[in-house]
Amino acid sequence: MVSTKAISSAESYVTAPLLYKGKVRELYDLGEHYLIAVTDRISAFDWVLSPAVPDKGNVLNSLSAFWFKQTAHLMPNHVVHTDVDQLGDIVTDREIMKDRFMVTKKAERIDIECVVRGYITGGGWRQYEKTGEVNGHKLPEGLRKNERFAKPIFTPAAKNDVGHDEDISIERMKELVGAELTDQLEAKSIMLYEFARQFCEERGIILADTKFEFGLIDGEIILIDEIFTPDSSRFWAKENYAYDIEIDGMDKEPVRTYLSSTDWDKNSEPDPLPLDVVEETSRRYRNILDRLVK
């Protein structure tokens, strides 16, 4: 699957109408279904950066396809198929597209990002330092950065297609989507997280936190978007785990580290990423796929 060519857009390779272009994913209309194409674009601090990262889209899509299969016994998902040979003339280059798409059911998206945290780190740690809480969860005093929770906690966010999603409490989520649906999504999210956490631990990887999106088809809750990828989850190599430090993540950490070392103001378009940063980021994406799937 290793590629040297980065794909910034699938528009040249898909003949179906483009419905939506996100930071990384593109949504095409197949009539009854969607085609989701995953590009090699990379974003940080709400900016899409250049150049794109070779193989990133292949890795993200392959990991999601893998995890949707692994979790199908736990709950239904939106995947119809990932077989490029079924697409016919919908794609113009099968070799380029074969690992970076999935055909999915059309679901009504629930506008809540369902976040599960197994460890106190990142934005959760910053909340805890200030308030002793994370999204309204009152936590014990004296927790250390990166410490594992006794039980995973559910910390939802309200979806915002422009800018950052908004962290909310479970009580606020109930106001937005109803108590019954909130309880169902919390239970399903924690169930999925605990399944994947155990799977990862057996392969020397810590799944610190993750996020899900869900949709409805005829009133049934299904799993949509992506799951357990480096863009939706915080993975740590067990050998790097420690308290009280910034653990080097198995994702686009080289990009964030580089950008933080520059004088970029995060309000104007950044300069292109150096080649060594792009290569190291590409290597990390491939590595997490190899460690989890192969």
From TrEMBL:
A cellular component term, taken from the record's GO annotations: cytoplasm
This protein's name: Phosphoribosylaminoimidazole-succinocarboxamide synthase
TM region(s), chain numbering: none
Top-level taxon: Bacteria
One GO-annotated biological process of the protein: 'de novo' IMP biosynthetic process
EC number from the UniProt entry: 6.3.2.6
Gene symbol of the encoding locus: purC
Lineage: Bacteria, Bacillati, Bacillota, Bacilli, Bacillales
Family annotation (CDD domains): SAICAR_synt_Sc (cd01414)
A Pfam family this chain is assigned to: SAICAR_synt
